[in-house]
Each structure stands twice: as C-alpha cells, then as structure tokens.
Amino acid sequence: MGCCNRRRGLLAGAVLGAVVAILGGILIPVGDSIIEGTVRKESVIEPGTTAYDNWKATGATVYRQFWLFDVTNAKEVLETGATPVVKEKGPYTYRTRFFPKANITFNPNDTVSFVLPHGAIFEPSMSVGPEEDIVTSLNLAVAGAYSLIPKELHVVLENMIKTSNSSLFHNRTVKEILWGYTDPMLKSPVGVFLPYNDTKDGPYNIYSGKDDISKVAIIDMWKGQRSLTYWNDTYCDMINGTDASSFPPFLEKTKPLNFFSSDICRSLSASFQQSLNLKGIDVYRFNLHPDTMASPTRNPDNRCFCRDKATTKNCTLAGVLDISACKDDKPIYISLPHFLHGSESLRESVLGLNPNEEQHETFLDVEPLTGFTLRFAKRIQINMMYGPSKTVTILKKVKDYTIFPVVWMNETAMLDDEKADVFKERLVSRIQMLETIQYVLLGVGVSVFVLCLISYCVVRRKDSKIA
Predict the structure, then answer these.
(1) Which residue from 267, 284, 334, 365 could staple onto 240, CB 3.0 to 4.6 Å apart?
(2) Residue 212 located in a structural domain
C-alpha cells in the first residue's frame, strides 16, 4: 500500500510540474503581449505617458562643445601662398535645449505641432578658457562676399576689403565667431550661429502614434511643408523619419533609422553597429554610414546634393555638403569633424587635421523596445569656401578653391542616473520581472516534472524486483 501511495505521489508531482511548466510556457506569449501593450500605451505622445514626459522637455542635459580652428601661419598664406596650417582650440562648452517644446498643439488627425526654442548658456567649468579667448580664424565676411559677388565685380570686393582694412584671416574672440559681431566691411552682424538665442526651430508637425504606433514621432511637416525646397529634387528634398530624439518602438537591427536634421537641411539614416548597456539599460547603437557624405561617383543618391561642380571638382569631392541654398546663399559647407570620411584633397589643402572615428563620428544609442534615444553625439563641422582671384589682392596667391574649417561641434546628451532609474522602474524592471516569472515557472515546472518522473520509474522498478 505504501509503495502505491509513493508512486501516486510521484505521479501527482510530475503532473503538477507539467502544469507549472505549461503555465510558464503559456505566460511567455501572454507576457510578450502584455509587454507589447504596455510599450504601445507608454510610447504614444499624449499627456500622461512616459513618451510625452521625455518628449516635452529634454530628459537629459544637452551640451554643445565647440572646437575652433586657429590658423598658425596666416601671414605666410597671404604673402607666399603657403598651405594653411590649423590647430583646433577647445572645447568651449554651452548648455543648450534647456527650454521645453513650445506652442504644443494636439490636432484632430492624431498629429502634434510644436516649436523648439533655442538658447545657449556658457559653461566655464567645462571649457578650456573663457569666451574672450582670441582665435585667428577665417574671415567669415570676406569668404561670404567672395562667393556672393561675381568675379566680374571683384574690383568692388577689392575696394570693400581695402576700405575696411579687412583680410582673409582675422583675430576674433570665441564668442564673436560663434554668436556674432558687427563686421567692419559689411557693416552688419556676422557669426557662425547668428542668430541663435531667442530663435526657434520649426514649427514641426509630428504623428502622436495614437492611431498607428509605427508612426509615432515621425515628422509629418516642417515649417508647414512635407518636403524641402532647397535641392530641386524629389529624393533630396524628402523629410524622412523623426527628429532623432525618439523613434517608433520595437526597433529591428536590420532596419536603418531615418531622421531629419534642420541644421544641415536634409534627411539622414543610421545603421546598427552594436549592442551596449547604458546604466543598466540595453541599447542599440546606430551610426551614420560612411556613404552618407560620399561623392556621387560612389553614392549616386547624393548627386542631387552636388550644387557647384567647380568647387566640388565635378562632383567627385567626398565628405562635404553645400548648404548655401538653406542658409541665405552663404557659402557654408557641412562635413564631419576634420573631414572624416572625406576626400584626401580636403586635408591636403588645409593642414593639421586628424580625423578619428571614435572622436568625430555621429551616433545614437536607442532603447530598442521603446525607441527612446537615451544617448547621442551629433558631430558637425562648419566650413566656408574661398578661392583664387586675379583682382582681389589677398586672394592672388590662392591656387585653388579651398573649403576651410571654421569650427566643429559636438552636441551630446546622456540620461542621468535619476532618469535612468525612473525609466527602469516604469518599464524595464516590470518587463524583467515578468520575464523572470515566466522562465522560473517554466524551469521549476520542467525540473519537478523530470525529477518526479525519474523517481517514479526508479521506485516502480524496485517494486517490481521485490514483487
């Protein structure tokens, strides 16, 4: 009788283990459904969701670090036509994006409209020196006038330069170069980022994701338009993706992330590079592909970005983007810092540049389940162009068109420990707990089932021998 009871107990244990294992197995798809539902709910941009809280105001402190290019042989360049030699000076750091989004309006078609206010506050403790540091830099006014005034009228430019005692290079403070000064030749304000403070980017109109979560944060319109008007080409004028602060949830490594940057007046894409752990949160790192700034000979999609065949050597120059069309015709060329991934000729015409992927690449660290960007580094170099002239004295020694680096910027942010803890508490920890329960039930159930089944077989064999 005791043997029978023991075997029955073991059979009951095996059945119980099987039930627990089945429950754990059932909970896996159920749990996945619960997780997906939670993410879908919290990713919608509407008051009360995690996405809205992160979207309305930047969830991390955003800094812009600037390195300016100091010309070390300005006199030799002017007098003998020597190749310019530069040395970067920085960082000079500013806190930016500290204003929340403004004029937020929820529209009936499940879109949200807003503007991004601009502001910059100098951070002396994170800088190599004060804003009053002097830098020998390319004269923005002279370079700009060179491109805007036709060669037939260079006698006018020559007169303007001599009358104002201007030159190709000048000594200016960091603050003047970045944020503006009154130029003696143009008699008007000039600066790399002039105007910036008290200005706004937008308005933007984006999808809230309420009707379709796969569209959340994707730009519907920018400045009232669904496409740009700068490039005179359907492809190059497309506004794709989000503003890169977040993306639709459930990212896949095989699919690139598309985003629009108003700073450079075009859409970009980034591809998956590696998985990382950021403050206890698993993230995917996406980098700009090297072909993003490739010449049209290597990447035909970039042909519509080539505007001037003379300065780009018949569109064979890689690594620079002429954005004059969206900058009031100012001869501004955007590149990665130190002409990373650019043509060698760019670094031969201006010496002292040393591109480094680790320091100069742009990346996004995105939490794959929610699509939230938790860390990023946007690195951009601002260049201007000048060239030879038979009339302008200070340009007579110049041999060829030169795309000259003025400053490069590293805009970066990372969620702090407090925000990371909140993110993990609201979402990650709940998901991990649910997954743990699923697999514990499955593991314990299988273990009990196998152990009881083996014990039952052993006991039955012993009982058979005794009988």
Answers:
(1) 267
(2) no
Residues ≥6 apart with Cβ < 8 Å to 225: 239
Are both 254 and 374 inside the same structural domain? yes
DSSP run (H or E) holding 127: none
Q: Which two structure tokens, joined as six digits, stand for 110?
A: 């499940």
- Phi and psi based region of residue 208 (left: phi greater than 0; alpha: psi -120 to 50; beta: remaining): alpha
Range of the domain at 21: 2-40+428-466
One domain, residues 327 and 458:
no
Same domain, 30 and 66: no
Q: What are phi and psi of 361, to 5 degrees?
A: -85, 155
Does one domain contain both 24 and 65? Answer: no
Helices then strands, counting H and E runs in the chain, come out as 10, 19
- 203 preceded by a cis bond (ω within 30 of 0): yes
Note whether 376 and 291 are same-domain residues: yes
Express each pLDDT in 77-133 by its tens digit: 999 999 999 999 999 999 998 888 999 999 999 999 999 999 999 999 999 999 999
Same domain for 269 and 144, yes or no, is yes
Rounded to whole angstroms, the Cα distance separating 14 from 93 reads: 66
Helices 140-148 and 154-163, axial angle in degrees (round to 10): 160
Omega prior to 47 cis, within 30 of 0? no
Radius of gyration of the chain (CA): 30
* Predicted TM-score of the model (pTM): 0.85
63 forms beta bridges with 95, 412
- Dist. CA 213–CA 142, nearest whole Å: 50
Question: What are the tokens at 327?
Answer: 């900058």
Q: Which amino acid is at 107?
A: N
Q: Where are the beta strands (DSSP E) in 310-401?
A: 320-322, 332-335, 363-366, 373-386
* Judgement on whether residues 89 and 134 belong to the same structural domain of the protein: yes
Q: 270 φ, ψ to 5°?
A: -130, 145
Question: Could you tell me if 315 and 339 are in contact, meaning their C-beta atoms sit under 8 angstroms apart?
Answer: no
Tell me the mean pLDDT in the region 241-256.
Answer: 94
* 433 lies in the same domain as 375: no
